[in-house]
Structures are given as C-alpha cells and as structure tokens.
Amino acid sequence: MENRKLKIRDLTLRDGQQSLFATRLNQAEIDKLLPYYENAGFYIMEVWGGAVPDSVMRYLDESPWNRLRTISEAMKGKSLLSALSRGRNLFGYVPYPNYVLEGFYKEAIKNGLNVMRIFDALNDIDNVKDSIKMINDLGGIADGAVCYTVDPKSEPVAHEEAPKGFFGKLFGKKSSAAPAEPEKIFTDEYFVEKAKEMERLGAKIITLKDMAGLVNPLRAASIISKLKANVKVPVDFHTHCTPGYGLASSLMAILNGVDILDTNIWWFGGGSAAPAIELVYLFTQKLGIEIDVDMEAVGKIRNQLRHTRESLKAVDTTPLPKDFDPLKDTVPADIDAQVERAIAAAKALDEETLLDACHKIEQYFGFPKPNELVKTAEVPGGMYTNMVQQLKALKADDLLEDAMRLIPMVRRDAGLVPLVTPTSQIVGSQAVMVAIDRRNGKPDYTTKSNQFISLVKGEYGHTPVAVKPEFRAQITGDPTEKAYDTSTYKRPENPEIPELGGVKLAKNDEEMLLLELLPTVANGFLKKRRTEEYEAQKASATVTEPEKVEENTASADEPITGPVYKTEMGGRIVEMKIKPGDEVKKGQTIFVYEAMKMENDVESPVDGKVKRVFFAPGDVISTNDIIVEFEG
Fold it and tell me: Which DSSP helix (H) or strand (E) runs through 373?
C-alpha cells in the first residue's frame, strides 16, 4: 500500500449538517467557512442536494441557487462540487419527465455544480439512465450510486426466546411455526450488477451508498473488493455511524481498495453522520496511505466549525466530542493501541474485535455510542427520527412502537423497497398511517398517501420484488403495474399575484424549477420574495393599491349546522379543489393536504353542496380541525 493516495469527498456542508443538525446551517455561517475550504484540497465537496433545497427555503428563508453559486464562486474550481439527486425524483417525491430533469441539471451545472451523485430509491436502472446521459452531455460528472439495503429479518419462531424490553416488543415471538426462509435478494452480486450497469451507461464514479449505516465491516470488505474487481471507474464508499459500523466499515473499505471515502470534519462527524476525517487519518497514517487533503487546512476549518456548531445549538442534540488536532495532539498510548488493534483485526477479518476497538476509540473522543434501536430495526436513523417528530406533531407518540413494528410489513407489501429517500419517508409515513388506522378500528391501509399509492402502482419504477397483484388492487383499484406516464405530468402554474401588482410568482427559470420540484415550500418562499420587492418599490415610488381579492375561506363564528369533514392528521393544505356553493359527489377529491411530507387526497364523505370552507392553500391544520361544512 506504499504511496497510495485516498481521495476524500467532504460531506460537512451537506450530509453532515443534514444528518446532525436538521439542515439548518445558514449561508452566513457557510460564508465564514469557505475561505478555509478553498485550499483544503478535497477531491469533492458535497454542498447541495438532499434536503438542502427544501430546508434552506422552508426553515432559513434562503435561495438554494444562491447557496450553490456562492460556494462555487468561493472555491474557484479548486475542488469539485457535488450534489445528491434522487434520479427521476430529483429533490421531490414524484417522478418528473425528462424535460424537467434536463432543465434542472442544466441550471445546476451553469451555477457551478460539477458532480451529480444520482441514485434511485428502488435501484431501478431505468430511473437513472437518462440522468447519467444528461449530466455527461452537459459537461458534468455522473456519479452512479447503488443504494445498500438488507433483506428484512425473518419472523422469530415460537421456541426462540424473544428479546426483552423495547426490542422484544418490536421483534418478539410472532408465530408457533417457523416460516419458510425467503430468498435473499440483496446479495453482493445484486449490488455489483447494478454498479456494472451504471458504468456501462456512462457513470464516471460508482458509489456504494449506505444511507442507513447498515454495511457491517465484513460486508463492506466483500462488496468493495468485488466492485473494485468488476468496474474500471473509481469506487466511492458512503456510510453513516448511526448503528456503530461506520468507522470500522470505512477502514475495511480502505483496506479493500476504495478510491474515494466520504467523511465529515470533526464537529460534524460521527453519530448519525459519516465518520470524522481525523479518525480516518489515524488509520491511514499507520497504513502508510496518504489522505489526499491538506490536513493543516482541515484544522483551520475545524477551528471555525466549532463556532459554527455553536450557532446550531437550537437543533443540536448530539454530545460534543473532545477537541482534537491529529497534527498536534498526542493520542494516548491505550487509544493508539486500539488503532493498531483495529487494523490488525480488519486484516484478519475479525469483525468483533474490529468493532470493539473502533467503539473504544470513538468512546474516548466522545462520539455517540451505537444506536441499538436503529441497528436492530435496520432502518435509517433519519427515518426513525422523522417518525418520532411526525408522531409528536400528531400528538400520537404512543404509536411509535406500533409504527416501527409495521415497517417490515409495509416494506414487503410495497415490493421490498430499499429504505432511502423518498421510499424511507413513504414507507415510514405509511406505517404510521396503518398504526393510526388500527387505533381507530379501521382496516389496514384505509388511510394511504398519494405517494404510497403511486409506489404500489408502479409509478416510481420497478421494485426489487414484484408487488402482489391483489395488494396492488387493494391500494390502487387495479392489479396491473402501471409505470409513470410523463404525458400526464402537469407543470405547476406560475400565477400572477393581484395584491402585489400582478407580478408573476416565479420570475426566472431557476425559480420556476423550485416551483416544479418543491411546490408547497417554494410557493411561500417566492411569495415572500415578491412581497419584499413590492414593498421596496412602494417605498421608492407611488404604487396604485390593487383591488382586494375575495377570499373563499369562511368565518368560524357562525354555528355548524351541516355535515363536516374533519382531519385525522395535522398538516398543511396544498390545494383546495372546492369553494362555497359547489355541488360535490361522494368520493370526489375536495382538497389535498401534506402530512408527514406526504400528500393526501381527501374525498367528500357525502353528496351535497359546499356551505363553507375554513382553510386555504398554505394554511396549517391540526388533527380534528373542521375543513369543510356541507349544506345540512
């Protein structure tokens, strides 16, 4: 391994802050970091994609495009900039036609993006092939990511002793007879074949994307070594530390020839994020491998990041690690011995010893312990925390165990989909909905999101295992698989805003793309921008006040006398399809609302005439709110 160099993709500004700090890192703090990043020499910096476009608008009131432009201008081409894209879904939860994909990629590359890491939640090659070609044709670098997942655990048999406590409730005894062992789907060969297909289509990098941190060290060794033997392009390894495998599996990937490793800088590493580059450096120094990064520059970033983390304390729930500079600080002898022990164990394929040594190293430096719940349940940490937050918002925290227990059932029913955005969100939200259905005495899948219906129908692509026709008929009304039909795609309107002088909501291509990809949050974000511009114009000149627009929402002062529709879950109104005076039929869609990041069509419970509508698009609603009243 003499003279070998390991390239690094730094995740700090995207995946690191998303994993640990709910994507709340604002532009002002990023601007402080960029002068130190310029000469750090990272091969790639991941700075965009994932939850960034949604979150910076939703929570920070900032422009995603401005973020990309600012970073690109500051880096001056010295590191490649990358983003994460969900293939045909881009950053949203629905498939898009090719003209939307191409428009988005063209705008992203124009604004400074170099590498687009493209994955599909179903590992359906048909969903990434067009994106790979477009990125290459536009002068970018297509990075094909294969999503790692595991086969669901078999149901325990009666004679097995069920684990006690919370895990016993989740994974306790279920039946009196052992079921037939299902065929293994997610073998090493499965992932290698997906990688070979992506390379054949033009991918210039292949990433093993372990979004849940479930690649244990021995599996990392076997898959990375087989990828290196079967593809000619560089191989990248992306994992997280949530279940406790991340550091050990990264060491295994290095020993088995990985070309690029994804890491974070100290204060944004470990826990639910990827490993810290400083801990990886301890291993590479012993192995005689050069990390192809200026570690002194990394130290300057680390010093600033300590202050940056202070700015995120409102969303920081992870203990701070000890301050550590691998270029200046002496590692205690016992910890240095654990580094040696880990390397020896990795070379000997002794996984138990390797994990023990890595956990001792992480414990000494103060990084979080392995999350046993995520490890046992085998779900992404972000999926689990999302479910916790969603159930709190619904005031249904008591359903967490039930919802977690339902995930394997929902996943199998939906075609054994990998759990990565957006399927992790779709499956997790649907498990919550089934738990709510059961609590309310309703059959499973009485309540279902539009996205779950689309997934089962086949609109997201081919699932790893075919959905049973009878289940598809139950969910969609038709047993046949139906692919997404691009001819049915309806581009969102770009309305004029009468109260702001009749200006268009989106004023250029990049803003229109935000409306297409993230319509709910972009609508509010762009409305604020146009309001600011209108107020500024008013301040500098006389503006004729526009006529007031009549609202369709009603006053709640008048007593309710007719039938009503009440929500079963809180959320936000996306679209109101009715107004007072409309005649509706039972089963007709009357409004669409977003709950748990999923959209739900609501059907009229009656034939009748709409008397009052109490909410408008953009309004937040709570459980049991009355949305519509019909004539009595």
Answer: helix 372-377
Whether the pLDDT of residue 390 is over 80: the answer is no
**Within 13 Å and on the Cβ side, how many CA atoms surround 78?**
16
Buried b (16+ CB within 10 A) or exposed e, 158-167: eeeeeeeeee
Q: Which residue has the tokens 């490649």?
A: 80
C-alpha of 294 from chain center: 30
Question: Are 80 and 37 contacting, i.e. CB atoms less than 8 angstroms apart?
Answer: no
Q: What distance, in Å, lies between the first and last C-alpha atoms of the chain?
A: 80
- What stretches of 131-183 adopt beta strand conformation (E)? 141-147
Q: How far apart are CA 285 and CA 288, in angstroms?
A: 5
Q: According to the model, what pLDDT value does residue 320 have?
A: 94
Are the beta carbons of 14 and 91 closer than 8 angstroms? no
- Nearest Cα to Cα of residue 290 among 323, 325, 262, 254: 254
Output 632 or 206, whichever has higher pLDDT.
Answer: 206
Residue whose C-alpha is closest to residue 281's, from 243, 322, 327:
327
Report the amino acid identity of residue 236: D
How is the beta sheet containing 598-603 ordered, strand by strand?
A: 598-603, 589-595, 571-576, 620-621
CA atoms within 13 A of residue 582's CA, in its CB half-sphere: 19
Between these two residues, 100 and 169, which has the higher pLDDT value? 100
**Quick one: pLDDT band at residue 175, thresholds 50, 70, 90?**
very low
**Per-residue pLDDT reduced to its tens digit, 326-369:** 999 999 999 999 999 999 999 999 999 999 999 999 999 999 99
At residue 192's C-alpha, the angle toward residues 123 and 105, to 5°, is 45
Which of 77, 75, 61 has the alpha carbon at shortest distance from 28? 61
How high is the pLDDT of residue 174? 47
Q: Extract the runs of DSSP E, i.e. beta strands, from 194-277.
A: 205-209, 235-238, 260-263
Helix (H, G, I), strand (E, B) or coil at 600: strand
| Residue 501 three-state SS | coil
Whole-angstrom Cα Rg for the chain: 26
- Distance between CA atoms of residues 10 and 396, nearest Å: 38
List the Cα angle 419/425/426 in 5-degree steps: 95
CB 616 within 8 A of CB 602: no
Q: Are strands 5-10 and 44-49 parallel, antiparallel or unpaired?
A: parallel
188, 221 Cβ separation under 8 angstroms: no
Distance CA 206, CA 235 (A): 5
The pLDDT tens digits for 465-500 are: 999 999 999 999 999 999 988 778 888 889 999 999
**Shortest CA distance to 230 belongs to which of 185, 198, 255, 260?**
198
